[in-house]
Amino acid sequence: MKKQYIILALLLVSFQFVNAQLTLDGEFRPRTEYRNGFGSLIPDASDSGFGISTRVRLNTSYMTDNYWVYVSLQDIMVWGENRQILPYDQNNSFAVFQAWAEIKLGENTSTKIGRQVLSYDDQRILGGLDWAQQGRNHDAALIKYKKDNLIVDFALAFNQDYSHPTGFVSTGTGYNTTGFFSYKTMQMLYMKKSWDKFNGSLLLLNNGFQEFDTNNAADGVSNLQTLGTHLNYKNGSFGLAANAYLQTGKRQGGVDVKGAYLLGLDATYKATDKITLGLGVEAISGNDGGAGETGAFFPLYGTNHKFNGFMDYFYVGNHANSIGLVDFHVSANFTLNESSSLMVKALNFKGEQALASGEKSLGTEIDLVYKKKFKGYSLVLGYSQMFANDGMYELKGVTEVAAANNQNWAWAMLVIKPKFLSGTK
Hints:
Shape: globular
Strand content: over 45%
CATH class: Mainly Beta
Structural class: mainly beta
Order of helices and strands: HEEEEEEEEEEEEEEEEEEHEE
Largest sheet: 18 strands, antiparallel, barrel
CATH architecture: Beta Barrel
CATH topology: Porin
């Protein structure tokens, strides 16, 4: 009798896999970092930073003909952060990174609801920020349309903080989460069209930021609009990509944004099968306004670590209302063999606006990244060096005399992505 139940259970499981696809995979990503000027100039009197963090993710995907459910759990563990036999995670880093359901509405249309990554084009304005161990996500509802070479996405978000000890708050919708451009409301329209050698996209993004009165009570919303385009051309060994974005409206704190812009142009050339060269420039407007207004652009929710140097001196939790940036860069990617590669990049930085001294020149950064693939895992090594000019010392508030002679950063990262379970239709 027990065998019959076992056979019946196996038949039910088999039938389920005929009509659905279930996958279970994960990620184990420890990273060691030596920080001696990462993010800002380090004074000579300060000791260098050194530590190890590990990102662990468990991802479950369940897909049928009519819907798709995805859940990703993660924890970020800094080695040694918990004392021995502590019964809980001291930094409270365990989180649901993604949890969404995508429901098919028609042949070309679906809706995706829940916590999800919004990543488009080169991730300049909206990206997953995978470099950061915690990543970036959004709680949103997304309407998706895709037919042939046309993509149209429309997203809506309304964020709320139920901080009341009894749970749901019956009155008011004040949103108390602030900082890092945390928004209360969001509306996004993204359209992309592709042709043989060219594709172009249009992004319209509105973010509403909660404002508070002198009694710390919710007092309306400031709306910031970001609009622009990403263009991409590819012809044989030559590639060209351009970004053009504007910002207007109001930032957090009701600051008027006028004439803020981001312009970028990058060219790539595949010189040989093993060498790809790159050349580019990006200009981001700075604060040239008076009290209560600004002309500074901020790239908001993009993968900002990807741009303006890996040492994160600009637009990574910093430089939000400053002198802007002009970034000239050259790069070379070398395929060393079937399993390894080396990237070399040099970036020269200037302020789009002058500092108080009249200085614009900020410095030069050199980035190196080496990747090696093994069977089932990969190893990534990086090294960056900042050569600061007078303007950088003024910008970061560290005098050249007080600053360390070397401003550098080195890291090593192991990436393992096991697949525990995979059922196919």
